[in-house]
Amino acid sequence: MTSKSELGLVQMWWGNGKGKTTAALGMAVRALGRGFRVHLIQFLKGGIKGVEAFEEYGELKALKRFENFSFERYGMPEWLIGKPTEGHIEAGRQALAATARALSSGQYDMVIVDECLYAVQLGVISSEDLIRVVKGKAPHTECVLTGSHKRLPEIEEIADLVTEVRKIKHPFDRGIKARLGTEF
After folding, report:
1. pLDDT (tens digit per residue) in 144-162
2. The pTM of the whole model exceeds 0.70
3. Domain-by-domain residue ranges, the chain?
4. Is 1.10.8.80 the CATH number for 4-165?
């Protein structure tokens, strides 16, 4: 039986398929069910201006019911398409600082750093800065990194588990947009 003292690995979930955040949040539910303390930090998820359903994702509504769950969201109220603005970069800096605090504190059994790999891919933060922060984590804190359609070998190097989520087929390719309760 695994105990909290056996935690401390770095997991990386990346790829062009749907389910990276979903997998990480599934691990959060599993950990919370065992009484572990879970903290979620979200990069690039500041909601979408004027779209109320994106102000609070369904998974956050559910996870907030657990007393051992906490979260922080960082990002602009818009999708990042193309080159990041200074606002995106500043939100990325704030999210990275929050990640450093959470990972190094020893306060959490699991820290999920959602979409941080996209933040690297899109130039919001550097892979060197993310690696430095991850290497500074408390020894028994499990770290879960998600995001990116692009392979990031330098981050893979420090991870204990690397999973590529690969798209075979997606409803969006047929014009079906994100749906309430399944994508957000």
Report:
1. 999 999 999 999 999 999 9
2. yes
3. 4-165
4. no
